[in-house]
Amino acid sequence: MKIILPKLGANMDSAVLTKWLVAEGEPVEKNNAVAEISTDKVTMEIEAPEDGIVVKQYFKEDDDVPVGAVIAEIGSAAQQSPDPAKPNKAAAPEQDAKLAASPSARKLAHKMGIDLSVVKGTGPRGRIVSEDIMRYANSEQAAGEKKEAAGQLPEQAQVSGNTPDPTVLAEPSVQREQAESYRLTRIEKLSGERMLQSLQSTAQLTLSRDVDVTGTLALLDSLKSAKQARITFTAVVLLAVCKALQVHKRFNGKLKNGEIIIGENVDLNVAVATEQGLLVPVIRELQSKSLLSVSEALARIVDKARGGKLEADDYATGNFTVTNLGASGVDTFTPILYPGQIGILGVGRILKRSWVFQDNLEIRSIVSLSLTWDHQAVDGYPAAQFMKSVAEYLETPGLML
């Protein structure tokens, strides 16, 4: 039985095989994960279609796999054929062969002369991956062994009366002083490429506005007390943007060949920070949702994003994007347009500030909003009017309930 890379989206033509979860020769049960793949939008597991043994893997970890390609084959133990390109497993210790480790981790351990039995695995179900080998190689124990070996002076330096060559003695310490580096995840690299493309292909401009949200926060407190449900401020912003998009319809469209195609529904993308990088899933048809249902939809999509459970359909490009950096302590920033869209709204943190309210100086809750839009599609005045509508809905939330 062949395992084929499926097509997860209309624009998907390949994916990176990020991790093998079952090695060649290991048994696997039906519907259990065999490999992990990653595209620019989603990371997901490929499951075994039946019980059996993984008799052949056709790609290595980090390989770019085209859609429809056979990534592995499942069969019986009798079908497994030896691969002359692989090292003789009989020569390896029996204990090492039984350890759960990815093929790339085994290869790296063999190359570096590291016994797998002393390495702690951090992969799925304690499986040893390449990062574990590198971590062990750089650990205090490994470093101590290297230091002990390096401490033995060259034969020339051990001769009585000879002074050790300072350049020889200094070499090990110089090698240990390596600059720290961070390897971008696939999602981070592709997100950066999309943002660069967005900046290069659109005339982006940003305007900002401070908004009094004291009334909105009071409403959220009262709803929490009455319904025993926590509705987030971001959910209110999404609803306010939805209402504004129904009035200022240009922002609910996409610019194509000098024409703005207005969307039938209000589908909003929401930026979500995850361990893998920034994800921007979509919440559909907000125009038909209440504040409570918007908040519930937002909570679901955030949980899916941070739990690595997003599906291909969750990554569709909506009509507008909202990104909130308030929880990170940011006041005002310049968001970059999501490719294909006309506008994106950035939300800063809420601060207590002196504010003139009904001709009186009071302490009010103020939030900073930043709207970036494509000046090819919309001029400055319509953009300011859109921002004004969003502000009015947040200042008087009863208008949208």
TrEMBL record:
Entries under InterPro entries matching the protein: 2-oxoA_DH_lipoyl-BS, 2-oxoacid_DH_actylTfrase, 2-oxoacid_DH_E2_comp, Biotin_lipoyl, CAT-like_dom_sf, E3-bd_dom_sf, PSBD, Single_hybrid_motif
Necessary cofactors: (R)-lipoate
GO cellular component, one term: cytoplasm
Peripheral subunit-binding (PSBD) domain location: 100-137
Signal peptide range: none
Alphabetically ordered keywords of this record: Acyltransferase, Lipoyl, Transferase
Pfam families: 2-oxoacid_dh, Biotin_lipoyl, E3_binding
Comp. bias intervals (Polar residues): 155-165
Gene3D superfamilies, alphabetized: 2.40.50.100, Chloramphenicol acetyltransferase-like domain, E3-binding domain
Region (Disordered): 76-101, 139-167
EC number assigned by the record: 2.3.1.-
Alphabetical list of PROSITE patterns matching this protein: BIOTINYL_LIPOYL (PS50968), LIPOYL (PS00189), PSBD (PS51826)
Name of the top EC class for this enzyme: transferase
Domain Lipoyl-binding stretches: 1-75
Tagged with keyword Ubl conjugation: no
SUPFAM superfamilies referenced in this protein's UniProt entry, alphabetically: CoA-dependent acyltransferases, Peripheral subunit-binding domain of 2-oxo acid dehydrogenase complex, Single hybrid motif
Molecular function via GO: acetyltransferase activity; lipoic acid binding
Sequence similarity: Belongs to the 2-oxoacid dehydrogenase family.
UniProt name for this protein: Dihydrolipoamide acetyltransferase component of pyruvate dehydrogenase complex
Source organism: Paenibacillus abyssi
Gene: acoC
